[in-house]
Design a protein that fits this description.
With 656 residues, the protein is α/β, with parallel strands linked by helices. Helix content is 30%, strand content 16%. The radius of gyration is 25 Å and the shape is globular.
Length: 656
């Protein structure tokens, strides 16, 4: 009754109807009313229904890995070529160095076998535990001692693991996610997202206005990103050096780190064959005389795979599981998966108020076990969402923790290209990102704006994004799935949100509101994207607003009239704006919630990567970005982590 009003009432007892008993046409009207309601809760309800139901309908598979909708929409499932191992597996050093604690009940034996010192007495560490983490009398706790403990085995944790291990230090990594070797990857959308992504791919801001794609797997974002490998842009480096007081970023040392990272992960700019979507983007830009360029990727030119967001079975994308972590494992590092950091342990410091002395962690699963790890240096690299809560739960009070959170908000527009002879390929095939345009990025002025790129969309994701007005309309939209090319806008956002911890529930809070400036440049970029799709030959274009109307070309009596109608359509897109939950918005780049800076008044860590509050505690993930970069952040994350790792080596060697 609350959701449906009078349509759910009945003259007969018990005087109400189940939703399924409301006539279909009325149900569709109700859902559409929710989608476009001025009431925030109604729009939220619609988004939840739409996202979960349509994603499940189009991505869930049977025991044979098949979904019955795929034939109708022209989707072949995992690309057969992607399922083949193109490159020989790397040495087994990594696989033999990863231990899932849920599968190794004798964890003490594992740690002893891999060369770690087990502590018979942990009484000297207990005073560092906060009241919320006090151990029960007689509780079985495993005490471990090593040189460096790293919480998080993603992009920012993998690089220090290699640097520190090869420097002769004993390193232990904790990762709450699993490790997936190449042969473990199914490349099936629903199983992959549930296993490799935070919250199964359904992580979102508190108001659900922005979906947040974050990895929860060994290798982190390097395993599920789209292979784009940009160095930190010059205007961003200049901003960080001059406005943020961090001259390191314009130094030769930082450039050497960028070059070293790119060499390690095999970054190069070419693609032997361009995918349908990238060819459309490039063609439209060329036709309009707009900027377009190749995207550097950490994969070979022959890498033609639309499944990078689900891992790389062929080993052609050089994730940290193919590079840094392999070398770290060979040098003696160990990764414990299914293990979550609870608290950084501190004692009184000499140079600062506190000194990090290790980590309290817990294993996950049916029989959790506490671990206390004592270390000379502690690195937290759990990502921009998870790092602030860990620091807050550890008792740090720097007011900048969790602030300055950026997401590179992403908005998408689409074009329909029915003629496969003119534009060969399918939307889900080929390299996800090989071309981009900085036409709206404003690099030469303020430096804040969107770049135009192409996305990865498989049926479940696409179904939950494309406009829904009725069952029949949505099915027709899905029948076009194979031949729809999308342009997405990754926006370098001026506005910022925050990450926190609710004091009553201890739940993580994620707040983000789009800044008016960012909304304006997003809409400008959307207009550019629609023009690019038109210039590339689309017969129809549109947005994903809940009440979106598309524009079909060729229906006007003259070219002049069509031009006038199209300009009116673009103006109508701008007028809709980007209000919360009136269209799908997403983020793939979560940045800056524990930023680096020149002072504890404006940042969480110093130029060496060490927290202002505690000596011996370093951060190496994307949370340290002083401001957003506006481009895919992987190379920047690893370069900053590499520089920080050198400082950790010095810290450990100088420790008593």
């Amino acid at each position: 009754l609350l959701l449906c009003g009078a349509e759910s009432t009945d003259k007969a007892y018990p005087y109400d109807k189940k939703f399924s008993e409301v006539p279909l046409e009325e149900r569709e009207k109700l859902m559409y009313q929710w989608a476009n309601s001025d009431d925030d809760d109604s729009r939220l309800n619609f988004k939840i229904f739409k996202t979960f139901i349509l994603n499940t309908v189009y991505s869930k598979v049977d025991a044979k890995g098949y979904n019955p909708t795929w034939e109708a929409i022209g989707y072949a499932g995992p690309d057969p070529n992607s399922m083949k191992a193109t490159l020989p597996p790397k040495p087994s050093a990594l696989k033999s160095a990863v231990f899932d604690v849920r599968e190794h009940p004798d964890l003490r034996g594992v740690l002893k076998h891999t060369g770690y010192t087990l502590l018979d007495d942990i009484s000297h560490l207990k005073p560092a535990l906060l009241p919320s983490n006090k151990l029960e009398d007689g509780e079985d706790v495993i005490g471990i001692k090593c040189d460096v403990i790293i919480v998080g085995a993603g992009s920012g944790g993998s690089v220090p693991a290699q640097v520190l291990s090869t420097a002769g230090l004993k390193v232990l990594l904790l990762e709450k996610g699993r490790y997936f070797a190449r042969e473990d990857l199914s490349l099936l959308e629903q199983p992959t997202f549930s296993e490799l992504y935070e919250e199964g791919g359904f992580l979102a801001t508190d108001d659900v206005a922005y979906s947040l794609m974050s990895a929860a797997v060994v290798g982190g974002g390097t395993c599920i990103n789209w292979a784009a490998s940009f160095q930190t842009p010059p205007h961003v480096r200049q901003e960080w050096a001059e406005e943020c007081g961090l001259p390191m970023f314009t130094s030769e040392k930082y450039q050497q780190a960028l070059d070293l990272i790119c060499k390690k992960i095999g970054v190069q700019p070419n693609a032997t064959v361009e995918s349908f979507q990238n060819a459309v983007l490039r063609k439209g830009c060329v036709e309009l005389g707009l900027h377009s360029a190749n995207i550097p990727r950490n994969a070979s030119p022959e890498h033609y795979c639309g499944c990078c967001n689900m891992g790389c079975r062929r080993g052609m994308k050089q994730a940290t599981t193919e590079t840094w972590l392999v070398e770290a494992a060979a040098a003696g590092a160990t990764i414990l998966t299914g293990t979550k950091g609870l608290q950084v342990l501190f004692t009184d410091g000499t140079k600062k108020e506190k000194k990090a002395i290790g980590v309290l962690a817990t294993t996950l699963g049916d029989q959790p076990k506490k671990l206390i790890i004592e270390a000379k240096a502690t690195i937290v690299s759990t990502g921009s969402i998870m790092t602030p809560p860990l620091l807050i739960r550890s008792g740090l009070t720097n007011p900048n923790i969790g602030k300055h959170f950026h997401i590179h908000p992403v908005l998408g527009v689409w074009g329909y290209f029915p003629d496969e002879e003119k534009n060969p390929g399918a939307s889900f095939e080929g390299g996800i990102m090989t071309a981009f345009s900085a036409v709206s990025a404003r690099w030469d002025t303020v430096g804040y704006g969107p770049v135009l790129m192409t996305p990865s969309f498989h049926p479940g994701q696409y179904a939950s994004v494309v406009t829904w007005k009725s069952g029949a309309q949505h099915k027709e939209a899905m029948r076009r799935f194979r031949r729809v090319s999308q342009v997405v806008l990754f926006t370098r956002d001026k506005g910022a949100g925050s990450i926190g911890v609710d004091k009553k529930t201890d739940e993580i809070t994620i707040e983000y509101t789009l800044d008016p400036y960012d909304e304006e440049v997003c809409l400008e970029g959307a207009e550019k994207g629609l023009r690019v799709l038109k210039a590339a030959g689309a017969v129809e274009v549109g947005t994903h607003h809940h009440d979106a109307e598309s524009f079909t070309f060729g229906k006007s009596t003259s070219w002049k009239e069509e031009k006038k109608r199209f300009e009116e359509y673009l103006a109508s897109v701008r007028s809709k704006g980007l209000k919360p939950n009136r269209l799908p918005m997403v983020s793939y780049h979560l940045l800056g919630s524990c930023r680096m800076g020149s002072s504890p008044e404006n940042s969480v860590i110093d130029a060496k990567g060490e927290t202002w509050d505690a000596e011996g505690l370093f951060l190496t993930d994307a949370s340290v970005f002083p401001t957003p970069t506006g481009l895919n952040p992987m190379v920047t994350i690893q370069s900053i982590a590499y520089c920080t790792a050198q400082n950790v080596v010095e810290h450990v060697k100088s420790s008593k």
